Amino acid sequence: MDLTVEVNAFRELLTSSNNITILLPETATADAVAGALALYLSLTQLTKNVTVGLAKPVTVGWSHLIGINKITTQLGNKNFVISLDYTEGAIEKVSYNIAGAKFNLVIEPRSGAPVFDAKNVSYSHSGMMTDLVITIGAPTLQSLGKFYSENQTTFDEKPIIVVDHLTTNSQYGKVNFVRPGASICEIVALMIQATQLPVDSDIATNLFDGIATASRNFTTSTVTSDTFAAASWVLAQGARRKQSLPIRQEELPQKEVVGSSSTEAPQTPPDWLKPKIYKGSQLL
Fold it and tell me: Has residue 219 got a pLDDT over 70?
């Protein structure tokens, strides 16, 4: 597959970005997760500050992927958020003042409304601090769940790179690596290879796992020469193939031993083996 234009744009964005956020959709597949982690491991070797996020907890089935513990369900601490119990119409005015080295946020209750209680106040952080967003396997921004809904301004302001293989992808990025039919790890492998990003056996292992999983061990109708070329390349980079589990042999139930009957079997006649001559229905 020819991705020359996309690769050149990708290279330029990487050069100008130090903080990079890789995001997966809530419906992420094993192929997408493997690709995201491979890219994460590669970019961190460039001393980039990289975050990889998924809005829901990872599944047990992905636990073998290298770097799975790096996936976070929370993004950023750009904004300091103060939360308190609120009843509609209870606030008259919100203002602030600075006294020396102190910033004071002033919340004035409306006449007749209860005074705010300090014990009902909580604090948190939100907001991505990033220079570049890379989405993996996300057909739309909305498929990212809370990551998009809570950071829409960031998505409007920062460049986005889209990596996907779905025909339904809306290609919402500044750079779109969208190739229907290819596995996501196949696309990521080409991105890493074409831009000469760092690759080691861990990165290659994740990529091979994703390619093999998406293609059902290279048996689907979407497998092409590009698929085998990508698999061959990651194997050459030291990918470790998963060992096939031995087929479990089920133990067959043992046949019950039939106990000997107390009744003796009839004795064989002494002339049993002697030749016999029949005529009609009579024995001669």
Answer: yes
CATH number at residue 26: 3.90.1640.10
Among residues 135, 190, 143, 232, the alpha carbon closest in space to that of 6 is found at: 190
**pLDDT the model gives residue 29:** 97
Beta bridge partners, 160, equal 133
For residue 8, pLDDT beyond 60:
yes
Q: pLDDT by residue (tens digit) across 127-137?
A: 678 999 999 99
Give the dihedral of Cα atoms 32, 33, 39, 44; nearest 10 deg.
160
Assess whether 100 and 195 both reside in one domain.
Answer: no
Output the CA–CA distances (angstroms, integers) from residue 172 to 25, 29, 178, 217, in the order listed.
Answer: 14, 20, 11, 31
Q: Which two tokens stand for residue 164?
A: 């996907």
- Exposure string over 108-131, b if 16+ CB within 10 A, otherwise e: eeeeeeeebeeeeeeeeeebbebb
Pairwise CA distance, residues 24 & 32, whole Å: 7
105 within some domain: yes
Amino acid 178: pLDDT: 97
- Please tell me whether residues 149 and 209 are part of one structural domain: yes
Could you give the 3-state DSSP secondary structure of residue 235? Answer: helix
pTM of the model: 0.73
Work out the percent of the chain whose per-residue pLDDT is above 90: 63
* Alpha helices, H only, 117-221: 146-149, 152-157, 184-194, 201-214
- The pLDDT score that the predictor gives to residue 246 is 42
Considering the domain architecture, whether residues 122 and 151 belong to the same structural domain is answered as no
To the nearest 5 percent, what fractions of the chain are helix, strand and coil?
A: 30, 20, 50
